Amino acid sequence: MFKVAVIGASGLLGRAVVRELAAATPWQVVPTAFRHGGPQQTVLDVRDAQAVNAFVECEAPDAIVLAAAERRPDICEHDPAAARALNVDAVRSIATAARQRGAWVLSISTDYVFDGTQAPYRAGDTPNPLNAYGHSKLEGERALIEASDNALVLRLPLLYGPIVGWHESAVTSLVPAIIASAQPGAQAAPMDAWATRYPTFTPDVAFVIRELLLRCADGEPVRGVAQWSGDEPMTKHDIAVQLAQALGVEARLLAQPTPTDATPRPRDCHLDSGRLEALGMGRRTPFDVAIRAVLDAFMQNPQNGEPNA
Ligand SMILES: NC(=O)c1ccc[n+]([C@@H]2O[C@H](COP(=O)([O-])OP(=O)(O)OC[C@H]3O[C@@H](n4cnc5c(N)ncnc54)[C@H](OP(=O)(O)O)[C@@H]3O)[C@@H](O)[C@H]2O)c1
């Protein structure tokens, strides 16, 4: 039976991928985690190349979805060596082990490989990252392609989806400030109105990843670089307005017309999804529908956060 290892299965995206594969395929799925794994998940530190080799040898997957990473730009900026260990060196060792076993690797990257000055970006456009996170992910893309010719980089923009804590996504992390701003006498919550983002729903990405895995299972794996993105341009201020509506709170929001982040961020990295669309792939759930499902599920069941859990 087709066997898929999902590395980083305890994270925001990895959980959605495991859920999609379990619900919609008969495949054998091997989820791994590091610090936050459940009883069903194999513990694997991807920085340990020997452990990675032993895992791939032992499980012999047909395909590996790599969703483990350091994805927080501020953390990467302060500790680029730690970011590199996860976002570059671990990618190389997983791709090398996979090549030796003949497994296809799908490794997740980011729109932050671009500088945000010339959107929309096609997969072949020249990257120019502005921060340490973007640099590490771009190096990771190159490490993947160098180590294996049977691999795909999938670039994604800002993600949101079922959560186990508000902090898990840069979309839902706005919620505590939005709620606090609605309290009597509270100050308005500043929200970035400068950068345009394309929030993308993790169950939609998981759907796309399943479609890509299907092609691999059929012996026609997609290789190289592909991109997938939601199609609703929004600033964080726009996102906060929709979150406040969905939460039913009278938030006081202050639009910030210039960037205030200590870590430089690109202004608009809209990713062109044309390559996957031409293959007939993709699904986009409207933001207002998806965010209400995420908020309802988390408030009903904060331990799990999965819709219909
Ligand atoms: N979130 C976004 O908005 C966004 C946007 C664009 C691209 N991406 C990319 O999408 C991918 C998934 O991101 P995400 O948001 O799902 O990240 P996340 O929620 O922060 O999850 C990170 C995952 O990496 C695992 N991990 C961390 N250190 C590890 C280690 N040493 N060994 C093995 N696993 C380790 C974590 O496992 P434990 O928690 O069990 O330690 C967790 O499963 C990343 O490649 C990220 O760069 C994310």
UniProtKB/TrEMBL annotation:
Enzyme nomenclature, EC number: 1.1.1.133
InterPro entries found in the cross-reference section: dTDP_dehydrorham_reduct, NAD(P)-bd_dom_sf, RmlD-like-bd
Residues of the signal peptide: none
Record-linked Pfam families: RmlD_sub_bind
Cofactor binding comment, as recorded: Binds 1 Mg(2+) ion per monomer.
Catalyzed reaction equations: dTDP-beta-L-rhamnose + NADP(+) = dTDP-4-dehydro-beta-L-rhamnose + NADPH + H(+)
Pathway as given in its UniProt record: Carbohydrate biosynthesis; dTDP-L-rhamnose biosynthesis
Needed co-factor(s): Mg(2+)
Enzyme's top EC category: oxidoreductase
Record's keyword terms, sorted: NADP, Oxidoreductase
Membrane keyword on record: no
Positions of the RmlD-like substrate binding domain: 3-298
Function summary: Catalyzes the reduction of dTDP-6-deoxy-L-lyxo-4-hexulose to yield dTDP-L-rhamnose.
Family indicated by similarity: Belongs to the dTDP-4-dehydrorhamnose reductase family.
Record's protein name: dTDP-4-dehydrorhamnose reductase
Native organism: Paraburkholderia unamae
Phylogenetic placement of the source organism: Bacteria, Pseudomonadati, Pseudomonadota, Betaproteobacteria, Burkholderiales
